[in-house]
Structure formats: C-alpha cells, structure tokens
Write a structure and sequence with these properties.
294 residues, alpha/beta, Rossmann fold, DNA polymerase, domain 1, 7 strands, globular, Ribosomal RNA small subunit methyltransferase H, SAM-dep_MeTrfase_MraW_recog
Length: 294
C-alpha cells in the first residue's frame, strides 16, 4: 500500500461537531484507517492534549506514522478492544471522546493483495490484519455447504445464500475459489443485479469479511467496554455501514445506563458529501455521552 492515503473520511464535520475536541483533551480514534478523523481531531487540539489512534491493519499504522507526523498523535498497531490496556500503559484513566468508523477504507480496497475489491486478482484474504486469523479463501475451501450458506445469510443478509454456497462448493471441486475476482464472478451468476446499482457480490463479500475478522463479536465487546473509558461528559461516536452493525450500536446505546443517547436517529451524509464521496451513502453515525456517576 502506498504511504499517501486515498481514503476520504466520512461524516468529518459531524465527527468534529459531536466530539467537539478542545485543547488539552485526550481523544481516541479506534479505527485509524487513513487517518482522516484522527487528523481533524488532532488539529483542533492545537498542540495541547493528543489523539491515541489504533488500527488492526499494520499497513494503515505505518502510513499514518508518516502522514500524521507533526501532530499530537500516538499511533499503535492494535484493536480497539485493547484500548483499556493501551491507556493504562499511558497512565490515562479516562478520555474525552472515542470515535469508531466501522467501514472499509479505500486504501484497503486499492490493495490488490488483500482481496477487498471485487476486481482484485490477488488472494481473497479479507483480513484487516494479514498476520492474524484465517484468510477467506481458506474458509471457502474448508467449510461445508450449509456452513457457508449460514455465514452468507447471517452476516450478509443475502436471501440467495444457499444458491451461492452450492455454486462455491461445486466450483471448488475443479478449481478452488482463491481470488476476489473469481468469487465476484461466481456470485453474479447466482444473484440478479438490483435496480439500485449495488454489485450483486456486495453482501457475500461483506459476510465473509465479517466472519474472517469476527467483526460483530468485536463490536459487541467494544460497546460494553468503551463507555468505562470515557470521562463524565465524554462522547462515543460510532459510524456503521450496514444494518447489522447499526442495530448493535443502537441497542447498546439505549440499554447502557452509563450513557445518554444524543442522536435519536442516526446522522447521515449531506447531499454535498454524497456528491463528493459516494462511499458515504451507507454511513450512519450515532453518538452517546457518558453520564456522571451519581
């Protein structure tokens, strides 16, 4: 991956507005990616305080160390599930704001060796951290037809999951499905193209990515743990990109007695942002504030 990021952060104005960074504060970006949100927050600290930015993707961390140089940012190759340990190492008891952007970055899509793009001819990997877990192509080679169908249905909400799984199993008898391009072509033969223009392979890729990275499990754990890291009045902002994520965030915010929900409905991209950055169309932002202990 090139060091110069191509990804454009979604809902940038809304993140700044709702986290409202002030000089001297400590903020956390739990999904560093290309560093767009981190940069916006760090610039508003005006040299006092800092942003702790973490990401599971070593390539994102390496790029950010170069691109964010000169700003008050501490970068770590870690999951947002490790934030409590990282803050303890920094002797920080609480922070003023946390942002999680659960989307895929354009830089990951552009990396031919990761398999995130439907047109990628490299390995169908789909792992955020290539050094952890099992790549998607091995999952496709190993799982039984019913197991594949369940993953595609549960994590992709794909109603034609059984047809897709049947075709994957049939195809691998001759040639294993090893690239994103191969999988996308196979899925397109099973799923009719919709009127909204979204690629028929989208839901299947989403499902496999979620499964490989255990994304929903990580989000559930994070939503339980992160409020404890906020100072009274500190805010947790989460950007989700599909209904499975958004549902978890919505329910966690509503049921957590430590939090006051600030966004009754999720915030979405403005028409101007949609025109400038079409990938923002699915983004939904929810924000909650830590209530002072009574």
């Amino acid at each position: 991956m090139d060091s110069l990021p191509i990804h454009v952060a979604v809902l940038p104005a809304e993140i700044v507005q709702w986290l409202n960074p002030q000089p001297g504060q400590i903020l956390v970006d739990g999904t560093l990616g290309a560093g767009g949100h981190t940069r916006l927050l760090a610039e508003r600290l005006q040299g006092a305080g800092y942003v702790l930015a973490v990401d599971r993707d070593p390539a994102a961390v390496a790029a950010a160390e170069q691109n964010l140089r000169g700003l008050n940012v501490k970068v770590a190759a870690a999951s947002y599930l490790e934030l409590s340990e990282l803050l303890a190492e920094l002797d920080v008891k609480s922070v003023n704001g946390i942002v999680l952007d659960l989307g895929l970055s354009s830089d990951q899509l552009a990396d031919e060796n990761r398999g995130f793009s439907f047109h990628s001819t490299g390995p169908l990997d789909l792992r955020f951290n290539p050094e952890e877990g099992e790549p998607a192509y091995r999952l496709l080679a190993r799982l039984r037809e019913n197991e594949l169908a369940d993953i595609i249905y549960q994590f992709g909400e794909e109603r034609l999951s059984r047809r897709i799984a049947r075709q994957i199993v049939a195809a691998r008898l001759e040639h294993p499905v090893q690239t994103a391009e191969q999988l996308a072509t196979l899925v397109r033969r099973c799923v009719p193209r919709s009127k909204d223009g979204i690629d028929p392979a989208t839901r299947t890729f989403q499902a496999l990515r979620i499964a490989v990275n255990e994304e929903l499990k990580a989000i559930q754990i994070a939503l339980q743990k992160l409020p404890a890291l906020l100072a009274p009045g500190g805010r947790l902002a989460v950007i989700s990109f599909h209904s499975l994520e958004d549902r978890l965030v919505k329910e966690a915010f509503r049921s957590d007695t430590r939090l006051n929900v600030l966004t009754k409905k999720p915030l979405t991209a403005s028409p101007a942002e949609l025109a400038a950055n079409p990938r923002s169309r699915s983004a939904k932002l929810r924000v909650a504030e830590r209530i002072a202990a009574s």
